[in-house]
Amino acid sequence: MFPRIASLTLLALLSAPLWAADCPPLLQGQGELQQLRSKERIDLCQRFAGKPLLVVNTASHCGFTPQFKGLEALYQRYKGQGLEVLGVPSDDFRQEADNSEETAKVCFIDYGVTFAMSEPQKVSGDDAVPLFRELAAQSSKPRWNFYKYVVGRDGKVIASFSSLTKPDDEDLIEALEKAIAQE
Questions:
Q1: Which of 144, 142, 143 is nearest to 133 (CA)?
Q2: Which residues contact 108 (CB under 8 A, 6 or more apart)?
Q3: Residue 50 sits in which domain range?
Q4: What are phi and psi of 29, to 5 degrees?
Q5: What is the distance between the alpha carbons of residues 170 and 177, in angstroms, rounded to a whole number?
Q6: How confident is residue 10, by pLDDT bands cut at 50, 70 and 90?
Q7: Terminal CA-CA length for the chain
Q8: Does pLDDT of 41 surpass 90?
Q9: Active site residues
C-alpha cells in the first residue's frame, strides 16, 4: 500500500508545477475569491484557467443592474462552448448593497444569475484586488459599474467594454466568440 501512496504523492508533486504553469498570471495573482453568500471559495486557476472568460464588476443599485439579465443570457448561450462569466460586485462607485444578503438577492433571485459571483471586492485604485489590477494593466481600469473584460483562454484580455455596452452588443459578442475560438 505504501508504494501506491508514495507514487500518488510523487505524481501530485510533479504535476503541481505543470498545473501552475498552465494558469496565466491574470488568475494566479488573485488566487481565490470568496463566493457570494457561500462558505465556498472560487479558485480562479482551477475554475477559469484555459477557458474563455467574461469578467464584469457589478453593483446592485445601479442604472446598469438590469444588464444581469443579458449577462445571464450570454452565459446560457455560450457556456456549452466553455465560456465562463465572473461577476465581481463592488462598492467602489457607491452603488453596491450594504450587505451580501441583499447583493445575493438582486443577483440570484431578482435576475436569476447562475454564473460565478464573488463577495464584493475593490476593483479600482491602489486597493483593487490583484485580478482587477491585472485587468487594468492589460486594458484599462473600470470607470463605472458593469465594465466588461473579455479574456481569452491564454489569460490575456482580448477586449474591454464600458458600462454602456449592453451584453447583446455585437462587438462584445464578436470578442466573446473570438475568445471561445482561441486554442
A1: 142
A2: 37, 117
A3: 24-181
A4: -60, -35
A5: 10
A6: very low
A7: 40
A8: yes
A9: 62
- The C-alpha cell 453593483 sits at 59
Q: What is the residue whose three cell numbers read 481565490?
A: 32
Query: Residue 26 is placed in which grid cell?
Result: 491574470
**Structural domains of the chain, count:** 1
2: in domain: no
Residue 16 lies in a domain: no
Sheet order of strands, 84-89 included: 116-117, 84-89, 53-58, 148-151, 157-161
The DSSP result for 137-180, as a single string, is: HHS----STT-EEEE-TTS-EEEEE-TTS-TT-HHHHHHHHHHH
Task: Give me the count of residues in the chain.
Answer: 183
What CATH number has the domain bearing residue 65? 3.40.30.10
The tens digit of pLDDT for each residue in 86-137 reads 999 999 999 999 999 999 999 999 999 999 999 999 999 999 999 999 999 9
Share of the chain above pLDDT 70, in %: 89
Flag whether 173 is in a domain: yes
Give the span between the Cα atoms of 122 and 57, in whole angstroms: 9
**Residue 122 domain-assigned?**
yes
